[in-house]
Write a structure and sequence with these properties.
The chain has about 180 residues and is an alpha/beta fold. The protein contains seven helices and five strands. It folds into two domains: about 110 residues, Resolvase, N-terminal catalytic domain (Rossmann fold, 3-Layer(aba) Sandwich), CATH 3.40.50; about 35 residues. Belongs to the site-specific recombinase resolvase family.
């Protein structure tokens, strides 16, 4: 039996350190939005790696999934593989053999509460942005792509594919930058 940890934060700037998992043999970590389980390669790698009898340890339910459908799907997938999952902050463990109605109900309630919390946070954020825009103080998100460098590389004759590769961004990002000149 292996004790496996999974830690996730939403952005590169955030730290994984606050998610103490205790003693684990292997940790899977990623810095990516939790919006969709299918868009998280490290989560998918972890699900593929674990074996029957293993235990997956996660700091809290919201680190594993942002919506109820993904949460139930991930837990069910792990349980179907014979893998238990423990949420430290919530003090809950869902073993494969304990996949009864009461456990599913409890998990569903907690998942729904987490999803509701996320929706409220997004609503408050949108309200704050609307007020800041109305007051003329909203500047928006800082640009993460250096458009001047894209223009310069294009002038040097590089293809959009090569520019994207050199800058570590998608070709669509290069095209968008070139079309806004």
């Amino acid at each position: 039996m292996a004790v496996v940890g999974y830690r996730r934060v939403s952005t590169i700037d955030q730290s994984l350190e606050r998610q103490d998992l205790g003693e684990v043999e292997k940790v899977f970590e990623e810095k990516v939005s939790g919006a969709s389980a299918s868009d998280r390669p490290v989560l998918q790698e972890m699900i593929g790696w674990v074996r029957q009898g293993d235990l997956v340890v996660v700091h809290s339910i919201d680190r594993l999934a942002r919506n109820l459908q993904d949460l139930l799907s991930i837990v069910t997938t792990l349980n179907n593989k014979g893998v238990s999952i423990r949420f430290i902050k919530d003090n809950l463990t869902f073993p494969p053999e304990g996949n009864d109605g009461a456990a599913k109900l409890y998990l569903s309630i907690l998942g729904a509460v987490a999803e509701f919390e996320r929706a409220i946070i997004r609503q408050r954020q949108a309200e704050g942005i609307a007020k800041a825009k109305a007051a003329g103080v909203y500047k928006g998100r800082k640009a993460t792509i250096d458009k001047d460098r894209i223009y310069a590389l294009r002038e040097e004759g590089y293809s959009t594919y090569k520019i994207a590769e050199m800058m570590g961004i998608s070709r669509m990002s290069v095209h968008r930058a070139l079309n806004t000149k």
